[in-house]
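Follow-up to my earlier ticket, as requested here are the two runs.
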Amino acid sequence: MRELTLTDGDAGRTSDDVLDTHAAVQSVTRHLESASLVEQPALLMRRAALTARSDLPATRRDLERALASLRDAPEAHSLRTHAGAHRLLSDCLQEQGEGQDALHHAELAVALARDSDDAASLAQSICALARRVTAHGDAARAIEILTEADGECRRTDPVSQTRIDILGALGHAHFQRGDIDAADRALLMRAEAHRRLGSLDDASADGHAALADAERRDAAWGVAAARLTLGRVALARRNAEEAIEHLLGAIATGDRAPDKQMLISAHEELHRAYEMAGDTAAALESLRTRNEVAETWRRRADDLALARLRVQGEVDLARARERAALARSERLVAEIVEHTPNVSIQGFDADGCILFWNRASETLFGWTAEEMLGETVERLFADPDELAGFAEGARQAALEGASFGPFEWRSRHKDGSKGVALSTYFPVVDADGTESFICMDVDLTDRRQMEDALRARERRYRTIVEDQTEFIVRYEPGGILTFVNESYCRYFGRQADDLVGTSFFELIPEEEREPVHEKLRRLTFDAPMRVEEHLVLAGDGTLRWNHWTDRAIFDDDCQLVEYQAVGRDVHDRHVAEERLRAALTEVQSLKNRLQAENIQLQAEIRRVAGAEQMVGHGAAFQPVLAGIERVAPTTATALISGETGTGKELVARAIHARSARADRALVKVDCTSVTAGLVESELFGHERGAFTGAHAQRIGRFELADGGTLFLDEIGELPLEMQSKLLRVLEEGAFERVGSSHTIHVDVRVITATNRDLAKEVAEGRFRPDLYYRLNVFPITVPSLRERRDAIPHLAEHFVNQFARRLGREFEGIAPAMVAWMDTYDWPGNVRELRNVIERAAIVSTGRLLEHPSLVSPAPRQSNTVHEPPARLDDAQRAHILETLERTRWTIEGEDGAAARLGVRPSTLRSRMQRLGIERPRLDGELNARRDPA
């Protein structure tokens, strides 16, 4: 069996220098009896290495025990240690003839070494695997494995012991396959790697082996390549004479080889050798020869003789220079050791007496070199047990000739404080056989404090996670749970031990599993998170909706490690959303029904409005009809003026009905019925909380009339501060609700009406001139009823028919006395008053003719009747206030209001009206009744 060798990650190694293997085995066995579980794998592997060539069954038992211990406590050991154990067991099994098991353990060693990111361990494992594959007769696969590994080394670290091991195994594989030339090439590449790494003896040995093999087979290329390699090794040793000899041999043999580049390289190296020897002429000649090598190959012998003659005189000088360089190197190493920061370096003899103490040791422990030289290392140890372990380790290191460590121990400092250090000891034997040690210490005190703080934070984090109401879990890519918090356990009604190790997908309904799994597979390093809601099987056996946030966790190589998920129960919200969707569906159904009913209602309104068309087409009314026909098809603003009751609203409706907006709403605003403080809210709407009492959002009349027509009745009553805002809407089609900064754009046609003389109002400063001109685009003046008396019979007949149908009565006509009265009456209330009079007469008439005009107490235009004054003061005040209110059309405030005419405050007038029982009539026809309270 080949010699088993452990890396420093393998906890120990065998050595040919160990003279008493049996004693070493006994020492390891004694340590095993008292070793902890963490220490046992390293001791078992060390004993296996010692017994590898003498007792294979014992070696195998120790390695299998070591692997079992490593599996039981994996966190205490590195992946390098695992890989080394599998590699050693693979060698042992191969020697015992169990090739298949040996191959399996070699493959495990490669996988573990690759995960450890340790190049040396990986190289040793790959070489062991290649040997196993070769032993199975598949040298081609071994060559493929090693070639790939060599290519990776060339890209990452072309000059390393790792590549040297791989090239050695590659040469062996080529040799087993029978390709001697390829084996020699691998051997020479390994020699070159040895040379560049500084292992000149190994490089020389490889070169001589390749040279001997090539000379035996009379392979010109192999001889030339081997001599070129040996020449380079000699140059590295600064042995110019040997270098020139090998290089000249390479050139001589290279004449028969097809590789001219190798010959040129040989000339270049020869040039360097001559320069090293101080032979400038020969150096220049070698350069000229290199340039002429393509044309002639015949000047080698004379050049070699000349070079030898000139090099001989420079040999002594070169050697002297080498000795001086070596002395400088020794001084440089001493300076480096003395001033190396952060690494404490000490030297001590076999008895523990300190011989060397660098400056970093002074910084770490506090004592100066003068204070510590001659002292023992016992002074540095705070724990006697650790001191005993150190003494045993140093003795074992001296026995095996190997390093001891690294190991941690608690250190004592000059100021009395204690720390933690990581140390490694190297045994050194002088030429006279004196044994001593070199120790390198690294201070771990700050690191240990940080690790303790990190563990404390981890405990706090775990406590926080356990106290969360959300479900927090971690699981492997296959769905196997590795962590669950308490909330998750309570929700699913199981213990943590029962859940960990089971599949996350077992708690998801079968029909939901594949979609969830598919979405998890789509998570990438760049997009590692997804949010999803799906059903789960709760602990009470019901299906409930959960909201989950899954995050994929990747390592530094972008390989998926596991998932972390945070979830919560959202079943009640889902149920509420389902109910909301059902409610919205019902609302939509009701909305559709409402729209259909609205369409039907609009049609009915148009039908009813059509039944109340304007009646009477006398000459005085023709300009009104013509104006309606002209302005209706346009979008122009119309200003309708006329006395109260002349039918201004009916004109507005006629314009709307004949316009392109007839299918949309006509929205009316009576400016006299809205208080000054609420006009803006009425027109433009308001937001919730805009003012006291604004408990909800309100849509203004402009917004309601979007796409239709807005009729502003009695526009002259609009306050001045609102007139500017109305002007902006008319010009820009935009406004803001009260309490909002959001601008609303509307398409509204505006029709206004007034019974005031707006031109006079503008002149007296009560109406904005710019608004007046904007409204007065198309003026229409509706004549009073007394100006169109020819229309009274037609209107009266129309109203009689209308009220007869409504009351279910039949009238043959109007009594002549009432016709005569209507012809003589002044009609201050115009058409509205006429309509109300007809309605009252229709109600009180008992015969087939409409009569009883005395009920309306008409006042002829010319009357000589003397009225008796009221007997009581309150009756006189009541009559005077009523008359004034009728003359001002029940306008209380303002310069022309009733309060101003009566010479009292508006509040005083209102209180007197309340005391006297005076109320504004809901129908203008009731005015006459109120004039006669009896």
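Run two:
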Amino acid sequence: MNAIHLAAAGGFFFACRAVAEDSAGTGKFLLDGWRPEQGLPDKAVTAILQDQSGYLWIGTTNGLARFDGIHFTTFNSLNTPELPDNHILGLYENRTGALWVETERGLTCFDHGHLSVFGEKDGLSSERILCAAEDAAGHLWAGTDAGLNRLEQGRFTSFFTLEGLPDDQINAIATVQNRLIFATGKGLAEFAGVKFRLFNPVSGLPADEIRELQRDGRGNLWLANAAGLWEIRLRESVPDLLHPYQGSVTAFTISRAQKIWLGTANGDLEELAGGNPGRPSAVIAHFPSAISAFCEDREHGLWVGTRGDGLYRLKQSEFSLTSPIGLKDQEVFSLAVLSSNEIWFSTVSGALGCQLSNRMVTNNFFPPGAQVRVVSGNQSSGVWIGTLDDGLYHWQNGRFEHWDELDGLSDNDVESIYVGRREVWLGTRNGGLNCVQDGRIVRFLTPWGLTGNYAGVITGDESGRLWIGTTGDGLFCMSNGIFSTVIGGSGMPTNNIHALLLDREHVLWAGTDGGLARLAGQQLAIFSKPDGLPDDGICQLQEDNFGNLWVGCNSGIYRLRKSQLRDYAEGRGQFIDAVPYGEEDGLPSWQCVPGPQITKADGDAGDGKIRFATSRGLICFDPADIRWNLMPPTAVLEQVFMDDVPLPPADPVRVRAGIDRIQFQYAGLSLAVPEKVRFRCQLEGFDRNWINMSDKRTANYTQVPPGRYRFRVIACNNDGVWSPIGDSVAVVVAPFWWQTRWFKLLAPGMLAALVFGLLRQRQTRLRELERLRMRIAGDLHDEVGSSLWSVTLLSQMLRKHGKMGDEERRDAGEIHRIAQQTSNAIRDIVWIINPAFDTVQDLMQRMTDFADTMLRGTEFQLRGEGLKLSRRLTLGFRENVFLMYKEILTNVAKHARASAVGITLVELPDQWHLIVSDNGAGFDVSASAAGNGLPNLRRRAEKIHATVALESQPGKGTTVTLAIPKLAEGPWWRRKWRQIFYERDDANNPDNGLGH
């Protein structure tokens, strides 16, 4: 076995990986190893078992581990009180999936999340459990170092030598043809209903301690002791005893393919195919410590436990690194497979070789000094050889032909060759494209727009179309002698074409350093890393006979299904499942060489193999020989976290209100290549489609609204096989109290009650305000008005009848004037605040009375348009409109000298218009208006967001138009809210109740 080295695996653990050679010639095996540094509880492994769900359980001398292929979960007496001892002696799973753990101090049962422990208090004859098994009736039997025990209804019944057992130490139990067989320290015993009898069908059966006991697929019994391995064939009328292996066997197992794997005390792993005693065993691998346990998983991987060197996995390699005979470890640059027995090749160093069957033909016959760049050809046209600086050679029927620049070749550096039906096409580094037909060379330099003339890769189809991939200028097509740009610039991922493949469906595939292009007819599709490709730097392309596309890239090799790429390109698929291959599959970790040409023979002449040129040699494999892993992995939801706090396992998972993040942790139980397991998940009710999580093993959701959901996860194994069902759990996110259904049902009623209460409160407030206004108006009228009226009368009487001097008479007249003016003002105030005068009709009447007084001797007319006389007006509206009306009429009376005045009050949907016009003297509106009252009018209008329009000319009268908005500016809902609930009388407030 080669030296073991550490290699990273999945970012979670490090695995020891080596290649073990089978001395019997059965092939190569890959060996991975895990030790305590990678999470194993202890390097001494005592038992290995894969349960029904797919987890691998490993018993050690320092605890029990559950392994999903990526990380270990350890169970010991500290974190699992039901585990009575950390020294695990054995593992057994019954038909219902319950795991029984055999320890030094009792028996523990892991039954679907429920743990229970059994000891001497439960009837066990000893707490040192050596083995366990289940009989046909479903009863559990447990063998100890001091008796045999059977579990019935929660209690154990014990059996000893008194019941016929050869010895009280029970090492192993097996069921063969409904017969319960026990291996003891002094031979075999069989249970006969009540008593036991010795199992001795033939002479020569070992009577000493038997360590292990197993049944194979043919119904035969195998046992191991210090002398070796024995087989008892029970199907014959007379049982036959065979001794196929002599030597100390420390552990053995029988695979599904009926291979016998042996472990010895010196650490040798040996294979005994079919248990054939006539064939010697083959040593497959050697370990530093004795082998103590075996387990074959359901994906045919063999797990090996050692007594002091940890855990190993053995699996056969699907690939091999080969080189043509005589060129081992050289970098193959070009390969031409003319038939399954004839392969021509060139290397990076420029050597040319030919392999005929298993015989190597050297290149001594090739002209000296020529460095070969590319080879191509077929059986009918021979071999075409392009060189670095020596032109083109043709080998057929034992002789060479040669062309160079002197013969018409545009450049002696030939980079690519395509052999067509009647012609051979050459791509050169600096001379564009050349064609060899009937011994003549035709140049095609730059008619299709190549600036660098570097035709790096060429292929063609049956109709005669030619496809040319260039370095720097994109992809071109020649049809009927006319060249055209197929896709360039922004169409292709990049303009550097490294590989071309025209498949059986006549679909052209192009590999670039920016991804993969698919050209079907005129439909171009681009695939890259965001679409699911492992690597965008594609340098080699091959197809097999099973509908797969094999891609060589900078980081290795991966496989794609062409049908899935087609569906993805046509919008029928959501994902691309690329299957990468690397060290874990037996491939070297070297990158594929950019720019090689590999020509495959067509039809029956081909061998069906896929070949890739790498930096260290030629990878060659037959896809028909690959054992695809068709076992879908089991997707298991392991834990749910609520803001990083783990939730107890339950279905449904209940998430309380206010949680910011929900995290789901899951595993995909495929142990073949666990680091390649990929996942898709969906939170139904939140995600519209499946989410491609790649190899991530956690899914995070933030700000999930209250409701009922179901989280689903599925997994994919290393060969792209998805689990059909996966795992799922219901999730209930609790709402806050205001998000609950009952609150949403009650909220409209609560809102209606609130609105009704506010309306009632407003009505109450309005009634209180009306009563207050009535009281203030009455007090002003009765108290202040009466007193002012008395002052007015007395001052008038005093002025007329009193004996006063001229100065006192003037003072009495001033008192009379002020008292009368104040009385009029009080009368206006009483009218304004008295709710009895809130209607439009009252306003019109008051405006008429004021006009009678102010315009005495002048003809006037007051009319209304669109008025509803019974409409009630707010206090602020009546006040502001009336005061501005007084200001306008006062100016008319003082300055207009008019003989006729027209007054109109107009109600529009959103405005009131007050229009006052006269036929008086008029004035120039552009001149200064000081002293005519207009500045006061404008200031008052600005307070209520009203506008004043003035039209006047000298000698032609004056018209004043006052436009008053019914409501203040702002959003409609704010205006309505303020109109209903916040009616105010403050003139500085824009919402001062300017009418409804």
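The only thing I checked on run two: The chain is about 15% helix and 40% strand. Let me know what else you need.
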